[in-house]
Amino acid sequence: MHIAAMRKPFILLTAAAFLFTFMSFVPAAPGQAPDAAAKLEALSTQLQLTPQQKGEMLPILKAEGPKIEAIKNNTSLSGIQKMEQLRAIHNESAPQLQKILSPAQYQKLQTIRQQEIKEAIAKKRAGN
Fold first, then answer.
1. 109, exposed or middle or buried, with CB in 10 Å at 0-12, 13-18, 19+?
2. How much is the pTM?
């Protein structure tokens, strides 16, 4: 095997390890969703993201986080209104995510997000 061919997987693996370590130790800035990095890690596993995809998705998730939390915490909204507003936020980021993810990854993300919305509504109805 050629040395250059052997170095590429090593470099990618090193970059992934660095990104994971960096994201593990960087605290969330005030006003940002503290769970953006954790959510990205969970999505990374579920969607089998590359290190580059993770790096491109993190700013999108960080931007969505405060908006989503505000909707979830808004007691004046009904479950339907919350669902509609969450979908609107997801639709705002859809073009960016479609550029980052493969069609199969994007479809899986849509399924994950729909499930999260359903679970949030069910939790709200249960009084939690």
1. buried
2. 0.64
Q: 50 is written with which tokens?
A: 């590359």
DSSP-derived letter for residue 101 is: S
User: What b/e readout covers 39-69, taking b as 16+ CB neighbours within 10 angstroms?
Assistant: bbbebbeebebbbebbbbbbebbbbbbebbe
Q: Which helix or strand (DSSP H or E) is residue 108 part of?
A: helix 103-125
Per-residue pLDDT at 97? 94
pLDDT in tens, 70-120: 988 888 988 888 888 988 999 999 999 999 999 999 999 999 988 887 877
CA dist 114 → 7, 56, 64 (Å): 40, 22, 16
CA distance 92 to 98: 11
Q: Are 108 and 47 in contact (CB under 8 A)?
A: yes
